[in-house]
Amino acid sequence: MSNVKCSVNLNRTKLIIFGITGLFVAILIFALVFSTKQSPQTQVVGDILVWGVIDEPDIINQFVVEFKKSYPKVNITYQKKSANTYEKDLINALAAGRGPDIFYIHNTWLPKHADKIFPDYEEYMTVNSFRDTFVDVAYNDFVLGDEIYALPLYVDTLALFYNKDIFNSVGIANPPSTWEGLLSMVPSLTKKDSSGGISRSAIAMGTAKNIDKATDILSLLMLQSGVKMFDEERMQTTFDQRTMENDIEYPSGQQSLEFYVNFSNAKKSVYTWNNQMPYSIDAFLEGKTAMMINYSYQVENLRSRAPHLKFGVSLAPQPKGAQQSVNYADYWGLTVSKTSKYPDVAWFFAHYLMEKEQSTAYIKMASKPTARRDLVNTQRNQERELGIFAQQSLSAYSWYQPDNIAVSKIFENMIELTASGVSALSAITDAARKIDLLIPHP
């Protein structure tokens, strides 16, 4: 019996020794195999051309330098293009096969340029992850079906700029938070000369030709009023009529158009603007209007052009009693061209720029409001003016536009026609039919 026990013990000892030896050999082989493989960063290879339109090269190039420290075999070239010809140049370059790998895309461009884009890889970001990372308007603008077509660099919104000295001079302590409150301030803030002409306006609203972002302001008013701009299939405009959908009634945009134009109607009590006034930004700089509505980049513009101007920025006015805020978005994102030889590397770099660390640095250098949910509160608490715009990004909306430039011109014409005396109903009906003609049909 003792001999049997001894034999069993010896066998167990041999098995343990063989097991340990086998494990050691396996680990050695595993280490040898993987030591011959390239590390992930040396596998990322490619020449990437980036076309931008709003950012100076020194901003983007700082990120390129840091990226190359980890991925030295990627060559990235950033080129800033002229805003005036950017879209035309982009279309021509892509058609000729010499376009960029990554290009800046406006939040309204996807309807007309989706066919030029190589959608993002699900391995890099899922649609659910996109929704969790970025504010809602970016999902609505840059995601089609179950595919991501662009990543937002930032999200800007319209806000109220007001002249503190003018407000103080008439005894108004705070800017209006509602449109009704704004209307009540118009008589106090408006100044007229001896002949009845406007020498100082309360707010730059009412016309299109001499007001910066007039069509965006009107879009804001329509969306705040609950106007449904398009039908569900995006095959017909609906902003010119009352519509019923899923037992919900949506108002016509006619009332919003009339509200906007009334500021330039001499027969109305809120008359405070006309086509003889300077361009809205110049009027604000010169103290000829107490308020204007515009985007965040005007903060730096105003400071550089008029260092001594005392102005403030507040949240865009909302309708009195509104249950939720509605703001209007305007921003750019990054996307990858369908003609890129390295779409995987291009999207990899785009995602690198959108990571929290890089995004934090970008919005500081570029003075932009964040598009990332996890940075909204930080920017709101740390930056006085930009924090306003960051806060509004959470309630920002846009609307489907088959061609944003053409739509803008149609809206401008609609405003000017109404301001000239044409009925708002006629003007908005005509505008809707003209936009319908822009809709691509299968």
Describe this structure in words.
One of its GO terms (biological process) is maltodextrin transmembrane transport. Belongs to the bacterial solute-binding protein 1 family. This is ABC transporter substrate-binding protein. One of its GO terms (cellular component) is ATP-binding cassette (ABC) transporter complex, substrate-binding subunit-containing. It holds the Pfam family SBP_bac_1. The longest helix is centred in the N-terminal third of the chain and has 34 residues, at 2-35. The strands form 5 sheets. A 5-stranded mixed beta sheet has the order 2-1-3-16-6. It has a 5-stranded mixed beta sheet with strand order 9-10-13-8-14. A 3-stranded mixed beta sheet has the order 7-15-17, sandwiched between helices. It folds into 2 domains: 41-155 and 331-393, Periplasmic binding protein-like II (D-Maltodextrin-Binding Protein, domain 2), CATH 3.40.190.10; 157-329 and 402-436, D-Maltodextrin-Binding Protein, domain 2, CATH 3.40.190. It is of the alpha/beta class. The model is unreliable at 1-18 and 23-42 (pLDDT under 50). The chain is built from 19 helices and 17 strands. Helix 18 runs antiparallel to helix 19 (424-436).
